[in-house]
Amino acid sequence: MNRLRLDRGILAFLAGVFLSPSFSAQTTLKPAYDFSSSREDRIKLAESAAPPEISGKSAVYLLERTGYVKVREGTNGFSCFVDRQTPFNQEPTCFDAEGSATTLPTRLFVETQRALGKTEVQITAALEAGYKSGKFRAPRKPGIVYMMSHNGYISIPGKAELIHIPAHLMFYAPYATTKDIGSPPASTSMPHVIREGLPDAYIIVIPAQPAAEN
Questions:
Q1: Within 10 Å of residue 64's Cβ, how many Cβ atoms?
Q2: Is residue 88 part of a domain?
Q3: Where are the beta strands (DSSP E) in 46-189?
């Protein structure tokens, strides 16, 4: 697997990745998510998105080749799963109760459509239509998405490479733009908007790493 380490300014690039309206097939790129790994390992991967105090009480959805399967009921309103914004990505994610009620159904829909052989362009169009018709809903109040796993990877459109993404937090910001948060410079120390202008836009924050001890 080719991996590019995150560097300063990559947040702007990540925004472009998540905002891509379509995704052309990259036959030379191997998907990061391994369907052949054990069920236990894939559940642990989903749970790695949030601290165990949260993920241990959450519902868990396991990604299979036919789509997501709910393998555990939760008690705290959270839902943990491995998201894939493209078929090559691996994004351990835990939605809070609001995200579980609104955005999660779109993620389940996407993988079901992929399993049916629909193209990414077709899926994107269906999502847009679903939001317009009211089938899908944007988050209705502030909330948090945990993506604190160290095993997240996203693909670079047009290249056979994957980027290792850092542990981070996201907050619902439906239809938000970079301008809404003051157009901050692209930096790992600054918040950034991803999926800008869309119903499932987020403000992403990368927590500062502890300073190394001498």
A1: 14
A2: yes
A3: 59-64, 67-72, 79-83, 91-95, 144-147, 152-155, 162-165, 168-172
pTM: 0.84
Q: Which two tokens stand for residue 70?
A: 């709910």
Do the domain assignments include residue 105?
yes
Provide the domain limits for residue 89.
3-7+30-168
Q: Could you give the percent of the chain with pLDDT greater than 70?
A: 84
Looking at the chain, which runs of residues are DSSP E strands?
Answer: 3-4, 59-64, 67-72, 79-83, 91-95, 144-147, 152-155, 162-165, 168-172, 192-194, 202-205
- pLDDT, tens digit (0-9, with 9 covering 90-100), for 61-80: 999 999 999 999 999 999 99
Distance, CA of 8 to CA of 68 (rounded, Å): 34
- Please indicate, yes or no, if residue 201 is contained in any of the structural domains: no
